[in-house]
Fold each of these.
Amino acid sequence: MIKFGVIGTNWITKMFIAAAIETGEYELSKIYSRTQERGESFLRTLTVDDVDIVTTLSDLYTGIDLVYIASPNSLHFEQSKVAIEAGVHVIVEKPTTSNPAEFSEIEKLLTLYPEVRYFEAARHVHQPNFKVIQQTMGELTQLQGATLVYQKYSSRYDAYLAGEEPNVLSRNFSAGALYDLGVYPIYAAIALFGAPRAVQYLPILLTNGADGKGTASLFYDDFNVTLLFGKTANSYLSSEIYGLKETIAISNIAELDTITYHDGDGHADNIGQKTDDNPMIHEAQDFADIINDPVENHTKYNQWFQLAKQVNQTLFDLRSSADIEFLADKKEY
Ligand SMILES: NC(=O)c1ccc[n+]([C@@H]2O[C@H](COP(=O)([O-])OP(=O)(O)OC[C@H]3O[C@@H](n4cnc5c(N)ncnc54)[C@H](OP(=O)(O)O)[C@@H]3O)[C@@H](O)[C@H]2O)c1
């Protein structure tokens, strides 16, 4: 059993705990919160026994094998760094770090702790329907590009309109549309098509300088990928991947609910239907497999690590193309 602790007391942590326990590979041992009260009230929402609430990272990282980090983006780096130094495996929510300088520090540190595994929780690329898309791409005659969409109105935007600055719409917390929902289409694009040769981001900025929504382009040698994402409006568009005459349509690039293949004659086939209630189960299982057998699964681990690194670089390149600066960019390493 992998004894794990968690950082973050929001709904996503609850969902990860349920997924991890459902795999049968993990046992929840500690919950970190900035306050004992919030930790206890979070614990009351779970059905688990023998779990300690801790309020310091040093208490959290004693006696556990792995930590799941779901704090605001800007905190991921420091919390991951301290975990690695304590010999604790890390599953960190997307995006791993605020910029490539932080990612590179993590990469260097991992060479000193070769037994520690570091994973980015990009749940959709671990789902069975993502493999369906990858396999079906082999049937496209000549790739013509893609349009990937993830735009969902956020209740945190209501808070922003009411005069607050929620973490997820703040550059002080390395956030905004690109570093939140934008991560899903970017992850899918890079996992499917590789790293682009150039990128451009055209955001709609909020008055605090964070991006509320935007359109991005990833340029490849023979095709382009268009990305639409945001937190200030709802979109019901499907994502699409184009062959010459064939199209793969994806109902929602983050959830991968339904995958439809339209052949060159216009016939449509449902080739993938999501069946599980908790979309985090597959990543939890994939990460457990690597921790349980790091030698056998070394190639897979390396591929995910390199993918995380490329996504991190692409997020930064897109952000730089739009002159969006984070507070974290001012740090020196
Ligand atoms: N994979 C997914 O589907 C998915 C979905 C949602 C979010 N996420 C990711 O999960 C992470 C957390 O997102 P979220 O929306 O849950 O964030 P959040 O609500 O802003 O914060 C998460 C937790 O961090 C702690 N926290 C909040 N503000 C803090 C501050 N100023 N300083 C230190 N700790 C603070 C709080 O726990 P305590 O008060 O108990 O300390 C809170 O429960 C992000 O990286 C996001 O991208 C992933």
Note: The pocket of NAP is lined by residues 8-10, 12, 33-34, 38, 70-73, 75, 93-94, 121, 123, 167-168, 180 (CB under 6 Å).
Amino acid sequence: MLTLFSYFRSGASHRVRIALNLKAVDYHIEAVHLLNNSGEHRQQSYTKLNPQQLLPSLVLDDGTVISQSLVIIDYLEHAYPQLRLLPADIKLRARALQIAHCLAMEAQPLQNLRVLQYLEHHQQFDAAQKQDWIQHWMRPALHSVESWLEEWSPEQSKFRFCIAEQVSIADCVLIPQLFAAQRFGIDLNDYPRLAQIFTHCSRLPAFIDAAPENQIDAPVTAEFS
Ligand SMILES: N[C@@H](CCC(=O)N[C@@H](CS)C(=O)NCC(=O)O)C(=O)O
């Protein structure tokens, strides 16, 4: 069985959990706490697995370790083609990847724990300044995705997923990003199409089971802040 090294509130782990669930792949979660003991991901046992000291990592049955969430999803796409997360149509595929890359490569890295810890410890940022920083970098990415969706499909009532009726890698990345947006004080109503996709996906078992609050390592009274 596959093992996913994951943290309940890690957006990058969350993306992979959604992809695994959508593809109905059996997997086991090995929880790594990003805050306890100065970060379990920085301890030797995890560093041996992933020298980047970032979650997630996926370990295959033969011991092969894959890191980088989008690469893991690409691996799953080839290993478990039963449900395609990359549309067959090459233009739709480009759109799905455009959304995934915008959020995963430009928004998320700037809200990452190590960046926030640097701002706090080396630039003396307080909580309000950190929130302002995150919003400053996250809002343009969310706005871009909202604009693309508006351009690609002007009829808002049609929205269930980023690529119309087809769940894709874009939704695997968007939904965790919207969890983070809310956690950092962004009102999803500012992005009506994204909010609509969030509402729709939040009713689907694959997304519910992958949600931070439903993870084995989520605190009982989760403090999602
Ligand atoms: N590009 C990486 C990003 C991974 C990443 O940033 N993981 C975060 C959790 S969402 C992490 O482990 N952060 C630890 C830290 O910043 O110290 C991916 O997509 O897997």
Note: The first strand starts at residue 2 and ends at 6.
